[in-house]
Amino acid sequence: MSGPGPVLVRPPVDGPAGAVFTTRAGGVSEGPFASCNLGWGQGDTPEAVRANRVAVCAAAGLDPARVAVGRQVHGTEVVPVERPAVEGGFAAALDGWPDGDGLVTATPGTGLAVLGADCLPILLWRRDVPQVAAVHSGWRGLADGVIERAVAALGDPTRTGAAVGPGIGPCCYEVGEEVRARFAARFGPSPLRGRHLDLAAAARAALAGAGVPPTAVWVLETCTRCDDGRWFSYRRDGAATGRHAGIVWPAVSASTP
Ligand SMILES: [Zn+2]
To answer: Is residue 1 part of a domain?
Structure first.
């Protein structure tokens, strides 16, 4: 492997948990998947995806055999995870994962990964106990309540923190009138910018509505479509593009998050 390895963004986590967002930098994939593509099924080679997944886990201090991911279907299921459902975990198993746009675990050292290329990866943790959740959310999951369900699965919104990762920004995300109407009905006018939708603002509203204190929510201010040096973007590059990830895990020991 060449170069210094995957470039990660580490949100501030005020609890017994760890969290990272990957970028597209520092991997081994080529062409439209350059370079740190973690997604499978868009056309990259299995060798490259596996190498990137191994490298990301190493950089985050995780055992890839203990990292789970779900098949993302824009749903609202939040699936409890004790260990990865597929033998070998994140780096070995590219498919065969059960559906799950939301994953939750209280098993220290078990990582939960969600993939994105415009949709938001959202990472959640309890600030008092080692318990975490990961959510993949585009407009549909947001409108249907996947964030609220993940917060509820963690049990105590007032002791929950959240990091909202890279997604398509309001600068680039024009949506149809029906989608705008659904968001206005659910969240009021705050996530709407004319014909454009601000997914991160909607995520903030969903988290606040679920009882998470606004001061416990961190948002990575970026736009996947605008910043092609850091992010993959379906709207910019079409179907043949990669996926970056958010990964969250309960700390193995409360004293060493
Ligand atoms: Zn943009």
So the answer is: no
